[in-house]
Write a structure and sequence with these properties.
alpha+beta, five-stranded antiparallel sheet, binds adenosine-5'-diphosphate
Length: 751
């Protein structure tokens, strides 16, 4: 509705004033630039309060602008409170300002006022401006215009402030996020740096550990290993020094790298701390208790008042951790100690490393000791094998894998490193013994039983070696058969036995020849007797035939006696020839009584000459035996002659000689010759049978040794014993059949 222009001057003035007010209001945004909603609100209120004639101006800003704000300016109202006016307005118009009426008259406080409300922002989203005046015509058109313009300006400013605030918030958020991310990155960077450092340290530690373990594994001197361990622990652990003590530095395997003047203990060098030669109390306790001992130097009673403690404390060392170094066998080799400058124990990693290094070092020690012992025993064995000319071998039956010891190779004249095969062995074996070898190999394969045999080798230079092989078969854990055995070169023994046998046979021959001289007379007498008998009988026979009438029966009888004497002479000659011929050992069935009688007959004249009274007790049922008749007679002849010689000087008693034959057990016969001669001393009993032992001026001392050899060849034995009274008894016992006599039986009888 248009107001009629009453007074043009007034109107112009009024318009000018309105324009001025508008200019003031339009100038507000310049003040508001960069301002916050509260600032906008306050300047708005102040401007409206100064421009318009009002009782109050109330502005309420909503949350949308950043915070809910209520503010008020009063012209006439006594110090109005924003909250009170807000409460009155809400009382009248409700809680939603956007629905409040634009113009209304109502009571605010104690007065009736015309109220004009202008929303801020679209639909009052940003807030509301409420003005009140007592005038009934409030608001006039001009006032409405100004309020609306002011509200618009304020809305724009609030909107800008809102945008600015949002931008600021965003910028702050951005800054916050950047700062946060930067922090994260810095953290990650630090983690990475730490990880890198950790990795480098771990790598160094690993390299150090590897170096240590390699040192140990390569069998370096234990002292070196422990010194390296000390250095390593000092470098990797914090603020500590290390020491190690070994009970015995002269562990054989580690001697080679070390000097003989090594100290008996050491500590890592620090200035003023001397290398000590005794153990610290913790080390002693660790050794004795075989466990880790750690102690605080200042408080632990273990260290109470020791000089060592003062020394360590004076170097700022506060705690000790000591572990025993144990060998696998449980033997204590020494201790390892770590001295810290503060109460501490080494980290589990360091402890584990120490345990590992000392453990491996101890294994290395024991391995080295074992190897040394093995080497020593192998050397002993080789030496023993060489000295006894005995080699050893193993033979795997499934693969025919044969291993020869050094000495076995030497015996067979094989190259030391050549592989040995059955063919190679057979190649060396004497052709005559090949059969025996293959029998033994076949026996071993078939039965797995023990073997013990003698075989000859024929070597490239045609020399012959005699080898005795003894082997025992056994199965390994997989059931495979293996023979382990010894081969002894018995050539020297065999050759000397053969030489001895030859010498013995020569001696026997010499003995027989020697006996010849002594017996010639009696044999001649023996032959003479039948010869003169023959002559006498032949003469008698002739006389009987010449008689008239001829005595034919007498002549026949005489002729028979002639033949008998002739045969006897012939027998004597035959025996004589065989006795002195160098015949080899012959086996025949013989009657020992008869052989004895012959010997007595042969020796009788000599015995009689020596005034020896011969008595014979020949067993009637004596079984015949198998043996060499002539050799056994030679034994008897020798015993009779010795008995006769032993009685030569005996004049105070009969020179009695008893010859007895008898059975001994089921399969032996015994011949005993007992005299009453000078007898034998017990101490010379064993010597009698030695070759060349004689007490006679014309003796040769071979009779008994040859006799014993003959008897033993018959698998019997010959012995002597003093009589209870004067004289001695010589006897021999032989099996009826030497072939059926076992070696065992022979050995038993000999022992
Ligand atoms: P030799 O008769 O040539 O001395 P032997 O070997 O037959 O050789 O005898 C060795 C020694 O044994 C004799 O020298 C003698 O001292 C002793 N001897 C042998 N038989 C008897 C015996 N019946 N009584 C005492 N000593 C004997």
């Amino acid at each position: 509705m248009e107001t009629p222009i009453e007074q043009p001057v007034d109107e112009i003035t009024r318009l000018q004033r309105c324009v001025n007010d508008l200019v003031s209001i339009l100038a507000l945004p310049a003040m508001w630039t960069g301002g916050d909603p509260s600032h906008i609100g306050h300047t708005l209120i102040d401007s409206l309060a100064s421009i318009l004639t009002l009782d109050f101006v109330y502005v309420r800003l909503n949350d949308q602008v950043g915070a809910r704000i209520e503010m008020v300016r009063g012209a006439r109202l006594a110090t109005p409170q924003a909250e009170d006016i807000g409460a009155d307005l809400r009382h009248w118009f409700g809680d939603h300002p956007e629905t409040w009426p634009p113009v209304v008259r109502c009571r605010i406080g104690d007065e009736d006022l015309s109220i004009a409300a202008v929303p801020l922002g679209f639909h009052g989203k940003l807030g509301i401006i409420v003005t009140g005046a007592q005038r009934v015509d409030f608001p006039e058109q001009k006032e409405r215009l100004l309020l609306t313009v002011a509200a618009n300006q304020a809305s724009i400013a609030l909107r800008e402030a809102q945008v600015l605030s949002e931008q600021r918030g965003l910028a702050q958020e951005l800054d916050r996020r950047v700062a946060h991310r930067t922090l994260e990155l810095a953290q990650a960077n630090e983690d990475l740096r730490r990880e890198m450092a950790e990795r480098t340290r771990a790598k160094t530690q690993l390299a150090g550990e590897n170096e240590l373990l390699q040192m140990v594994a390569s069998g370096r001197v234990l002292a070196d290993v422990l010194a390296a361990l000390c250095r390593f622990v000092e470098e990797t652990a914090d603020d500590c020094i290390c020491g190690a003590y070994l009970i015995d530095w002269r562990v054989p395997a580690f001697q080679n790298g070390g000097s003989p003047s090594l100290p008996t203990s050491f500590t890592a060098p620090i200035e003023g701390l001397p290398v000590r030669s005794e153990l610290c109390p913790c080390g002693i306790a660790a050794l004795e208790k075989r466990q880790v001992i750690s102690a605080d130097l200042e408080s632990d009673p273990l260290w109470h008042d020791t000089a060592y403690r003062s020394l360590l404390l004076s170097h700022g060392l506060r705690s000790v951790w000591s572990t025993p170094i144990l060998a696998l066998s449980g033997r204590v080799l020494g201790t390892f100690a770590i001295y810290h400058r503060r109460p501490a124990t080494p980290s589990p990693g360091v402890q584990e490393l120490i345990a590992q290094v000392t453990h491996i070092a101890s294994i290395a020690i024991e391995r080295a000791q074992d190897e040394a012992a093995l080497k020593r025993s192998a050397a002993f064995l080789a030496q023993g094998q060489h000295l006894s000319s005995t080699g050893t071998f193993s033979w795997r039956l499934d693969t025919d894998d044969i291993r020869f010891s050094e000495e076995a190779n030497r015996i067979f004249e094989f190259d030391a490193d050549s592989r040995v095969s059955l063919e190679q062995i057979a190649d060396r074996v004497h052709p005559e013994d090949i059969q025996l070898l293959s029998e033994k190999v076949e026996f071993a394969r078939r039965t797995g039983g023990d073997v013990d045999y003698e075989i000859r080798l024929r070597l490239a230079d045609a020399s012959v070696k005699y080898l005795r092989t003894i082997a025992h078969g056994s199965r390994d854990e997989n059931g495979r058969m293996e023979y382990i055995g010894a081969i002894q070169d018995v050539t020297a023994r065999r050759l000397s036995e053969q030489a001895f046998e030859r010498a013995r046979s020569e001696l026997a021959h010499v003995a027989r020849v020697a006996t010849l001289g002594a017996l010639t007379a009696s044999i001649a007498h023996e032959v003479n007797q039948p010869l003169s008998g023959i002559i006498t009988n032949a003469g008698t026979c002739l006389r009987m035939l010449d008689a008239s009438p001829p005595d034919v029966d007498g002549a026949r009888e005489t002729a028979r006696r002639t033949i008998r004497d002739g045969n006897r002479a012939s027998d004597v000659i035959t025996r004589l020839r065989s006795l002195f011929s160098k015949k080899e050992f012959t086996q025949e069935l013989l009657d020992l009584n008869e052989a004895t009688r012959e010997v007595i007959a042969l020796s009788l004249s000599e015995l009689q000459r020596n005034r020896v009274v011969v008595q014979s007790e020949l067993a009637d049922d004596l079984p015949s035996i198998t043996g060499d008749r002539v050799q056994l007679q030679q034994v008897l002849l020798n015993l009779l002659r010795n008995a006769s010689d032993a009685m030569v000087g005996v004049d105070d008693r009969p020179r009695q000689l008893l010859i007895r034959t008898e059975s001994e057990g089921r399969d032996h016969v015994r011949v005993t010759v007992r005299d009453a001669g000078v007898g034998i001393e017990r101490q010379v009993m064993d010597k009698l049978f030695d070759a060349f032992y004689t007490t006679k001026s014309s003796g040769m001392g071979i009779g008994l040794s040859v006799s014993r050899a003959i008897v033993e060849r018959h698998r019997g034995r010959l012995w002597a014993e003093p009589n209870d009274g004067p004289g001695a008894t010589f006897a021999f016992s032989i099996p009826r059949d030497p072939e059926r006599t076992t070696d065992a039986a022979r050995i038993v009888r000999h022992s």
